[in-house]
Write a structure and sequence with these properties.
About 50% of the residues lie in helices and about 15% in strands. The protein has about 160 residues and is an alpha+beta fold. The radius of gyration is 20 Å and the shape is globular.
């Protein structure tokens, strides 16, 4: 699947949708406390998303009932918020998507509740570092592909082929 090249105004629309996602994720991070229920956190995120003019894009998608995917402890991805109240040492993943004027944003974070196990803390830190490194590599690959396309077109105009 090819990645579509976007015009600057399209990138701004994507950025606006993702800015709302980022704000909702920060809200989740700030409210991830012992005693908070997953359904309450989901409702807070949905209120935040709607108050910023967007829609929660996961809600209703393939029958998903909520705005936020909450993956608690051993749940790997796309968990459904329940009445469960967070406890000290839990690890919770939040995955949030928004739709703003036909453009989509999507991101996820993982947060520890209170004091978490040293192994969990180390794993979260390791994954964050390697995700950042991966983004740097992908950015370079995308730049190289852009150069490759440019030179392929130039060579074709000159009647040459790679």
């Amino acid at each position: 699947m090819a990645i579509s090249l976007r015009k600057p105004q399209e990138i701004e629309k994507l950025r606006a949708a993702n800015k709302i996602v980022g704000g909702a994720l920060e809200l989740m991070r700030a409210n991830t406390k012992v005693g908070a229920s997953l359904k309450e956190l989901d409702a807070q995120a949905e209120d935040y998303i709607r108050s910023h003019g967007a829609k929660p894009s996961f809600k209703g998608l393939y029958g998903f009932p909520n705005a936020v995917c909450t993956s608690l402890n051993q749940v790997i991805i796309h968990g459904i918020p329940t009445d469960y109240k967070l406890q000290e040492g839990d690890v919770i993943g939040y995955d949030i998507g928004t739709e703003l004027d036909g453009w989509f944003g999507d991101a996820a974070i993982t947060v520890g509740v209170g004091k978490i196990d040293a192994q969990d803390e180390a794993l979260i830190a390791w994954l964050k570092i390697h995700f950042i490194l991966l983004l740097r590599v992908l950015k370079r690959v995308c730049v190289l592909k852009s150069y490759q396309r440019f030179y392929n077109r130039l060579l074709l105009k000159l009647g040459m082929y790679l």
